[in-house]
Amino acid sequence: MRPVGNSRPPARCDVAVVGAGILGLAVARELVRRRPAASVCVLEREQGIAAHQSSHNSGVIHAGIYYAPGSLKARLCVAGANQLYAYCEQRGIPYARCGKLIVAVKNSELAGLDELERRGRANGVAGLRRVDAAGMRKIEPHCRGVAGLHSPNTGVVDFAVVAAAFAEDLLQAGGTLVTACQVHGVQGATRSVRLKHAHGVTEATHAIFCGGAWADRLAVLGGADPDPRIVPFRGAYLRLVPARAALVRALIYPVPDPSLPFLGVHLTRHIDGGVTLGPSALPAGARDAYRLSTVRARDLRETLTWPGSWRMARHFWRHGLTEIRHAALPGSMVHAAGVYIPELGLRDAQPAFAGVRAQAVDRRGRLLDDFAFSITGRALHVRNAPSPGASASLAVAGHIVDQAAQAFAW
Ligand SMILES: Cc1cc2nc3c(=O)[nH]c(=O)nc-3n(C[C@H](O)[C@H](O)[C@H](O)COP(=O)(O)OP(=O)(O)OC[C@H]3O[C@@H](n4cnc5c(N)ncnc54)[C@H](O)[C@@H]3O)c2cc1C
Predict the structure, then answer these.
(1) Across the chain, what does the average pLDDT equal?
(2) Distance from the alpha carbon of residue 52 to the mean position of ligand 1, in angstroms
(3) Are 311 and 365 in contact (CB under 8 A)?
(4) pTM (2 decimals)?
């Protein structure tokens, strides 16, 4: 967590952005670039920026393979990844375009691999290549499977470093960033949005909410539809011990279950050289459940009283059992990764960190797959921005500012 914040909140501004995760900061940066005369202020509840999802993730710059052609995720991920590589290059942010191998370990997964290849090509992902078992071993010598899909344009970066660079750009352009400033009231008026926060009130002509795991709560405060609700999913990682990190050169992913928005337990060589495996995907007792034992009464109540949570549980109970096993027995996640790297043993991995996904679930129990936004009065709300939200952040910011410009006649 990086403690930055240059100011106290202003009494008035043209645009307030709530949330200083990678998306809020990318949006604020885009706003000051496009509207240099406007006063832009970011309000963040934590002591530092990027304290939640934006610093607790796999660190993978997704190339855009998985997403339904024509979806926002497909379009914004492909464009956003390219923009992000160019940005890292220009700002001197360390990244590696290391490539990724998606591996089918049995013939029954080949249809899934075909579908991923079809989607990737339809989405315009550059350099995709099918490889057989021998071809896979050239890319990842310790990996086993019947066939793979190689994406040379997938990479890794530390998204917290990217978010910090966005914050610097914002401050340099004259924007305001206030940390330790939780917004707890949103009142729409004819000419402004009144934001009540830890330091008083800021009256903004327009507001853009990028609240991550708290997005639904902020939307409801502002008078928006309570559907969808955020259901937090905890994702725990293990780290390979340094002596065994050479088992993985870059990124090894399974063929994902198409009914879920999560990509499955994968092996990731991060930009710092460490290799993690994970994440799990277990509904959590708190929106900041970095520890399994963290439970917050309000968060739990909001999950349990949402009809969609129960419908989701009925539909996905089998997956739920696997995830409970992953959470309770770290060896179970090593076993899942061992399908791809048979040499992996139980002693090769140790507990690492966890992240909490802000996953929107609608009243009918469907996990929203695509990015989702809504507009109420003078406010735009990000309602669902899960992975690849960090990879796509620059393009998502462009999309949000386009939508706001159209809705608010900027
Ligand atoms: C386990 C995991 C793995 C992932 N892996 C990847 C990956 O490899 N690649 C990828 O592209 N994406 C990945 N993602 C997704 C990616 O991290 C998110 O899409 C992205 O970080 C979303 O950014 P955000 O700014 O919307 O949310 P966040 O980073 O969560 O930021 C939201 C901010 O809003 C603030 N906030 C909330 N409420 C208030 C309030 N009332 N007042 C003021 N501030 C408030 C919060 O404190 C927080 O700082 C992963 C996510 C997780 C959890």
Answers:
(1) 94
(2) 5
(3) yes
(4) 0.96
